[in-house]
Write a structure and sequence with these properties.
47% helix; alpha/beta; 16% strand; Rossmann fold; 4-stranded parallel sheet
Length: 137
């Protein structure tokens, strides 16, 4: 039985490859997440404009996202708008290296092809960390 708290966790899956996007989105839904799909970074930014209604927790995107900006640029834009939102990058080493060559703070978090359970475990770990109280300095 899925945890009712987890069922409210909404994630955006952004990937230009429709087959990859649908496969991982379906798996995440099966695991109890609410998923919004996007094919380009610009779609993610439109979704974020309505985030107060949606309650987004994370964005999973390919480093080699097609369109006006790749996954690394999207992550930078999302962090400006919503610094608390988890942005999980995925991709092959070659694609990530090419996409991040001039703006990289950190590499992709997940490797493609996806290990579906690994994606779920990674997202749940991130969301659990963000629910834990921060230690006071």
């Amino acid at each position: 039985m899925e945890d009712p708290e987890r069922e409210r966790e909404r994630i955006v899956v952004a990937d230009s490859n429709v087959l990859v996007r649908h496969a991982i989105s379906d798996y995440l839904r099966h695991c109890g997440f609410s998923v919004i799909e996007a094919s380009h970074a610009e779609d993610v930014l439109i979704i974020l404009a309505h985030d107060s209604e949606l309650g987004l927790k994370a964005v999973l995107c390919g480093a080699d996202l097609q369109g006006g900006m790749n996954g690394f640029r999207l992550r930078a834009s999302v962090r400006e708008i919503r610094p608390d939102l988890h942005v999980i990058l995925s991709g092959s080493i070659e694609a990530a290296a090419n996409a991040a060559a001039y703006i990289c703070e950190e590499g992709p978090h997940l490797r493609r092809p996806y290990d579906p359970q690994g994606v779920v475990t990674y997202i749940r770990h991130l969301l659990a960390r963000s629910r834990s109280p921060s230690p006071t300095a």
